[in-house]
Write a structure and sequence with these properties.
Elements lengths: L1 E3 L4 E3 L7 H8 L5 E2 L4 H4 L3 H13 L7 E6 L2 H11 L17 H8 L13 H4 L11 E4 L3 H12 L21 H10 L1 H10 L3
Parallel strand pairs: 2-4, 4-5
Antiparallel strand pairs: 1-2, 1-3
Helix pairs in contact: 8-9
Length: about 200
């Protein structure tokens, strides 16, 4: 998470949407940066609104707007799957080594996902307890130029293309038509919030 006081803007860190790269590019210009621990860096919109911002900015917290990047749901899950396949996680409970992407998505959709398939939901991240999106500005991961244009205008300087960070290994992401259809049905909220970020 990064907060820019003069711009009255908070850039939320939805996991696996490139926010680590933006922290590398803009962290020195931000007034507040939450990098560690991971659960604080990736604080949800509701917790940010109810807990973090009132603590940091007290009665001025309501003056800040929030921004989040949303990734196409299959691509987002693919990024998690590939990230957890890296050698550093071999033998650990959250490693996807030796498992197919189909296995990963099926486990993700189960009632009690194992550690290697437990990744949460982008829609829940940007919504309140009633499922209402509470982030002011949503940008699609696919449209980086729109995000940089908005940030440049809001922050008052040209925001550069951020350096690559946390690049995942390349893997084949085969997903059966049946499982793809089930994912779209059971995670309809994630597809809806992505469509919203795309302007649809």
């Amino acid at each position: 998470m990064m907060a820019f006081w003069a711009a009255k803007l908070v850039f939320l860190s939805v996991p696996k949407t490139g926010t680590h790269a933006y922290m590398a590019a803009l962290g020195d210009r931000a007034d507040v940066v939450l990098r560690h621990p991971q659960n604080l860096k990736h604080t949800s919109a509701q917790r940010m609104r109810n807990k973090i911002l009132p603590t940091l900015f007290q009665d001025q917290a309501g003056a800040l707007e929030t921004l989040a990047v949303i990734r196409e749901p299959v691509d987002w899950l693919g990024s998690w799957y590939r990230y957890r396949s890296r050698d550093a996680l071999n033998g650990k409970p959250n490693s996807t080594a030796g498992r197919s992407f189909n296995d990963f998505v099926a486990a993700h959709l189960s009632d009690d996902p194992p550690a290697w398939a437990s990744v949460g939901s982008q829609a829940r991240f940007v919504s309140n307890g009633q499922g209402e999106v509470i982030v002011d500005h949503l940008f699609a991961y696919d449209r980086q130029e729109d995000l940089r244009a908005f940030l440049s205008a809001r922050l008052g300087f040209a925001v550069p293309t951020p350096p690559a960070r946390n690049v995942s290994p390349e893997l084949v992401l085969d997903l059966s038509p049946e499982l793809a259809a089930r994912l779209r049905e059971e995670r309809a909220a994630d597809f809806a919030v992505y469509a919203r970020a795309m302007g649809g």
